[in-house]
């Protein structure tokens, strides 16, 4: 049960309710046994030949302490009164059994729901807290699968089953104890045969965990293909790749189909196997119990007691079936729990140090001191020394893979340096809290990242409490206000998934408005105009220029014509700074930067 330690942690919050749940279950079981126990005196009372004795005595193992009560009533009242009392006891005990059963279910249902809610919340919080590097190595579909399918598996096969693992064993133990009380010799067969049944069920369920894990992996792969299809549907249709993607999806889906068929076949075997073995045991009981009565070897064991014994055993089969199904479900859910726990226990490498300082205001400079960064043994940045003064614009240029984006990502601590130091106002960035560092920055990426919400909500992402006037002011600075007011619902217009209802230029201007509204002292710009048409580029570049006024800016440049006026241009090649200076200085140096400029001018 170690693998379910997370579930047990959530359940521990409800210790008091779980104790009450167990008490109600025990009471339900006791009253259920009372109603069954009255079968024997009822049958003996009805079918006993008492012509010679007008006041017969009830002699039955099944009623226990109620024997004296019934015999006392029998001595003073008519038979019909005794019969009525027996029937009333059966009705009242059955009513109380079901009342306590309902109360136990009423208590357990919110606990189950709350446990899954807490687990899902913690899983989402974990995803938000994981470093950027985790998502470059993990399939998006696999993460979605863990949040959806694996959580569902845990809810249906583990959390629901845990309730059965309390109620069903209590029922089985109580019924077995009562059966031993009725006839120790008959019960000896159960104590021998039931472990054999458990062994067979355990052997069958052994492979369910591995199959369930394989099924979760295949589902994650299918979700990844689906996500890629939805994202790249234009390219897929444009290149006529529908058949290729279809075959890829069908191959994964067929594999998932086969695995789930095998899982279901084993799971569905649990209930009929348990019932069949139960009937075999019941037949043995019928035969042996009948011989005890026929030969008077039962020490007062009557025909009514045998019927009661068989009734109790029949009632025992259902919880035994449920328990065997629970064992199968636990094995199936164990794989899902393992995948969820892997995510919950994934290391968070970017986090606040104890007693982290708060960066209230950016004062003077950002400084890289001999900074190097490696990712999984691959060196990305090597020996970077750079000072970015407050209010200055520094551009990062270089060929693809030179390390421009990685260098910029170190400033908001999307990654931590492998060696060296990154300082803000003379203090190591690791000594500041993450939230305070990122509150001083806004980021505009090359690909506009927007959410399926209103225009106003997207602009106000970094400042949720912004007024409509503040949102409009930011939109005007970003040259976005005019196209927004032309929309049917203005700022309340929903922009669709990833802003699909907007043009590329409109999407980019919204991301700029979002950065403007946050009003940070530091801007990180991954060339926001490289994929736009001429008119949109002019509007976006004008918005960027207005946004950069009086701010410290780090610009990742793809179109070198946009960074001619940068205070310093840093030329990166293979993770190292190979040139630095203003545009004019670098052109005069006739080095790598000049070659890049000339190549773009030729184009």
Terminal CA distance:
65 Å
Helix content: 55-70%
What is the strand tally?
Answer: 10
Overall radius of gyration: 37 Å
Taking strands numbered 1, 2, ... along the chain, how are they ordered across the largest sheet?
6-7-8-3-9-10
CATH topology heading of the domain at 2-344: ABC transporter transmembrane region fold
Reading off the top of the CATH hierarchy, the class of the domain at 2-344 is best stated as: Mainly Alpha
Residue runs with pLDDT of under 50 for 5 or more positions: none
Specify the CATH architecture of the domain at 2-344.
Up-down Bundle
Summed over residues and divided by their number, the pLDDT gives a mean of 79
Structural class: alpha/beta
Fill in the keyword field for this structure.
alpha/beta; 6-stranded mixed β-sheet; 21 helices
Structural account:
- It is built from 21 helices and ten strands.
- The chain is α/β, with parallel strands linked by helices and 603 residues long.
- Helix 7 (140-182) runs antiparallel to helix 8, helix 7 (140-182) runs antiparallel to helix 12 and helix 8 (184-205) packs parallel to helix 12 (303-344).
- The longest helix is centred in the middle third of the chain and has 53 residues, at 242-294.
- The protein is elongated, with a radius of gyration of 37 Å.
- The two termini are 65 Å apart.
């Amino acid at each position: 049960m170690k693998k379910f330690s997370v579930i047990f942690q959530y359940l521990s919050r409800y210790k008091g309710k779980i104790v009450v749940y167990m008490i109600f279950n025990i009471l339900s079981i006791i009253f259920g046994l009372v109603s069954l126990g009255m079968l024997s005196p009822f049958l003996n009372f009805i079918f006993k030949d008492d012509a010679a004795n007008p006041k017969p005595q009830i002699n039955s193992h099944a009623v226990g302490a109620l024997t004296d009560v019934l015999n006392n009533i029998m001595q003073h009242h008519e038979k019909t009164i005794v019969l009525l009392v027996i029937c009333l006891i059966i009705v009242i005990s059955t009513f109380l059994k079901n009342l306590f059963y309902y109360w136990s279910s009423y208590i357990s249902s919110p606990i189950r729901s709350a446990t899954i809610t807490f687990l899902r919340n913690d899983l989402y919080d974990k995803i938000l807290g994981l470093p950027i590097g985790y998502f470059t190595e993990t399939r998006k579909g696999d993460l979605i699968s863990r949040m959806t399918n694996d959580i569902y598996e845990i809810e249906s096969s583990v959390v629901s089953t845990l309730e059965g693992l309390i109620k069903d064993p209590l029922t089985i133990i109580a019924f077995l104890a009562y059966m031993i009380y009725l006839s120790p010799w008959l019960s000896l067969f159960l104590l021998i045969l039931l472990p054999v049944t458990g062994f067979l069920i355990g052997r069958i369920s052994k492979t369910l965990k591995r199959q369930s894990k394989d099924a979760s992996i295949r589902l994650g792969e299918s979700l990844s293909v689906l996500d890629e299809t939805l994202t790249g549907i234009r390219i897929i249709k444009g290149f006529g790749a529908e058949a290729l993607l279809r075959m890829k999806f069908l191959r994964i889906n067929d594999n998932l189909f086969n695995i789930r068929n095998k899982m279901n076949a084993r799971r569905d075997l649990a209930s009929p196997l348990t019932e069949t073995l139960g009937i075999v045991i019941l037949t043995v009981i019928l035969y042996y119990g009948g011989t005890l009565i026929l030969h008077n070897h039962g020490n007062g064991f009557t025909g009514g007691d045998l019927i009661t014994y068989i009734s109790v055993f029949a009632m025992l089969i259902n919880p035994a079936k449920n328990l065997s199904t629970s064992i199968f479900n636990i094995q199936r859910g164990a794989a899902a729990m393992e995948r969820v726990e892997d995510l919950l226990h994934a290391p968070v490498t970017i986090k606040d140090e104890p007693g982290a300082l708060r960066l209230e205001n950016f004062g003077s400079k950002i400084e890289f001191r001999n900074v190097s960064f490696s990712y999984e043994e691959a060196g990305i940045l090597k020996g970077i020394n750079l000072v970015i003064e407050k209010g200055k614009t520094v551009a990062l240029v270089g060929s693809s893979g030179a390390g421009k984006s990685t260098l910029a990502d170190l400033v908001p601590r999307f990654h931590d340096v492998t060696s060296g130091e990154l300082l803000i106002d003379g203090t190591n960035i690791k000594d500041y809290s993450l939230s305070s560092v990122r509150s001083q920055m806004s980021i505009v990426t090359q690909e506009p990242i927007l959410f399926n919400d209103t225009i106003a909500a997207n602009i106000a992402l970094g400042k949720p409490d912004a007024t409509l006037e503040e949102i409009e002011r930011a939109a005007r600075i970003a040259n976005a206000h005019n196209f927004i007011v032309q929309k049917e619902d203005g700022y309340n217009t929903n922009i669709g998934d990833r802003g699909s209802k907007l043009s590329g230029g409109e999407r980019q201007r919204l991301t700029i408005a979002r950065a403007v509204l946050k009003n940070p002292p530091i801007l990180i710009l991954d060339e926001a105009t490289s994929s736009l048409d001429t008119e949109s580029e002019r509007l976006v570049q004008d918005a960027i220029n207005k946004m950069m006024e009086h701010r410290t800016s780090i610009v990742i440049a793809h179109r070198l014509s946009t960074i001619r006026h940068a205070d310093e241009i840093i030329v990166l090649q293979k993770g190292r700074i190979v040139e630095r200076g203003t545009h004019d200085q670098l052109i005069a140096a006739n080095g790598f930067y000049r070659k890049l400029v000339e190549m773009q001018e030729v184009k």
